[in-house]
């Protein structure tokens, strides 16, 4: 069904201010890290071409402001999303605790057709900081949260060093693609996303 | 005010008013300073040259012309140029007396003339264009009986006249430098003239940034070629073989008509100033003659406009989408009103051969001249006007910003301000002490404080760190920024801290160089812009709404386009408005723009007109490429660093004047940065904990 092929996959990155959303996006798209990113105001996105099998897609990755009071803008930015990436800082408990808010807020504002099965991916960023000594959110805790939300794929990354960023986004792209195709086929119930494939660093088998 | 209106009315009604009263036309062609003395040059002026049958064409029809007499007179060794239309002798009944008086040139001294461009085609009429040093140009003066050569020869006998090295038809008066050529070449229309590469545009910012000018002029060659390739191809009925003069005539005639319509409207409404925002009726309104003096400016303005747009877009592709015409009938032509900017206030005092400390003192002295003996700003509107039309020399910002921001009252004395500073310094220390006294133990039980501090800590270290003042590890200014923001979040606990505040504070701290003073300036700014950061985002939504109304008013096809493409929320302008273009311009330019906006000279909401100006410049790109919301957002974000400040501000000024009352009425009362309407709960609290 070539005519129905989607070529644009829209991904939204959400999470508290300063967890590294902009850095993750830039590391993935531009293979660059800077200490001088400014706080994101409003929203912006980068695009990257990705290939699956013999098909080429444009991954449109949206970076948003992290402060809660800007969430009301989400309505405009979240619509049409194919996947939502939740990011927290493994060195900040607060950023982890806020994940529920971000997830719920996204589902409300984006109002996807099938919220139960809408693909999320969780990223615990900044694993490089202080060689992990200042880490406050354990991998176990993060995975438990993922399991409770329908087995969300989980990655631990360092946007600064580049660790695992490519892997995380490959999974994100696959999830987005699957989500997009489901929408096209209008058969949301036939795909089972609920199978367990949330192993750290191994990518998702979806 | 009413006196002035009456006078102006007289002028507009009586064609000979200007001729008989030098005052009228002297002010009509008033130079930037607006202070040129109204010479009584005829009393003992010597007539040097007289030429009859010199005409201007207010419309594109050659039959419609206003003939008059061109004169050169000399008084006190200064040469003056005059052109007075013949009384009651228009070639066409359609031309009113008003038309004729519009163009009267009375005794313009050659010290204010920058150049004269001659056009002497083998066929057709000869004409000259006189360009003033302010950048204004008079409409072409047609020598129906020939004689341009003689005229120039006569001028040359009395003033230093040098032929431009770039264009042999351009004669520079008292020239010293290249900026003249810029002005001259900018007179030419790219669509009708092959513009040689290497020519440059009109100086962008009155010389305050020579580096920028150099960069601009070096880029122009490329831009010119791309403009001629694409920028004008969409213009209907464009025929490259058409004579420049016809083209010029067309342009001028459109402008003339536009000017006439606008000014007629201006006078027909109450008090003669109806189209100017009533809320500003305590401020000087652009006088009628002053506006007219800008008519001839559109040449260079338009060409710069084209360059800038093209520069922004970088894309030479020709759009095949038929973009609806701009509803402002003359589109870019109508954007010619904005006056040229002056050098920043205090600039004249700047010299390179003296130390910075003396420079500072001199700048301060310049400002001091605007104060009475006790330090009151004698005429705040004059100060605000001066800043609006040129910004402030950096050394002087520290003195002036507190007034613009409302921290200092204009009518305060030196002593009162000194007292205020000391009181406020103590008050600041007390406020700062509130959070400084929180012990680590207390902080553990004070989540809001911890989180707020954490957010501020995160943001200050990523605010303008590439800028010298804030760069490097353990930068003390970054610490000051943190302290001020944290103190502010206690001063205004309900509003707290929100991202974007550090963007505002950074230039303020850089300018004020004092923690307490910066804090109170920031407080004053937040009195107006605090609603931008409300939890309910109401201040932002109001402004975005007002912006949509202004675009609807000033560019309905673009508005309709946004409507059809689901872009009416204007979220793509969110960053522009939240931090008033801080991320769109380089640091110095941002400060220039801010001080211009903070004058509230034409409108409190000048920033919204700046938004419209930028959008308007991009309209053909946006509509031609049929951008959807995402593409538009990306496009707008990527304009950052590519917007020309000077021409944008001038466009915004033009739009603001043009919108007049209707513009003001499009903006709901209380829209930031207007002061809040009531003293109720300024910052509604919701469940957001920060």
From TrEMBL, chain B:
Its main location: cytoplasm. GO terms for molecular function: GTPase activator activity. Interacts with non-phosphorylated form of RAB8A; phosphorylation of RAB8A at 'Thr-72' disrupts this interaction. Interacts with ARMC12. This is TBC1 domain family member 15. It is found in: Cytoplasm. GO terms for cellular component: cytoplasm. Pfam families: PH_RBD, RabGAP-TBC. It comes from Arabidopsis thaliana (Mouse-ear cress). InterPro entries: Rab-GAP-TBC_dom, Rab-GAP_TBC_sf, SGSM1/2_RBD. Residues 391-601 form the Rab-GAP TBC domain. Residues 19-30, 218-232 have a biased composition (Polar residues). SUPFAM superfamilies: Ypt/Rab-GAP domain of gyp1p. Residues 1-36, 200-239 are annotated as: Disordered. Keywords: Acetylation, Cytoplasm, GTPase activation, Membrane, Phosphoprotein, Transmembrane, Transmembrane helix. It comes from the Eukaryota. Acts as a GTPase activating protein for RAB7A. Does not act on RAB4, RAB5 or RAB6. The chain crosses the membrane at residues 124-144.
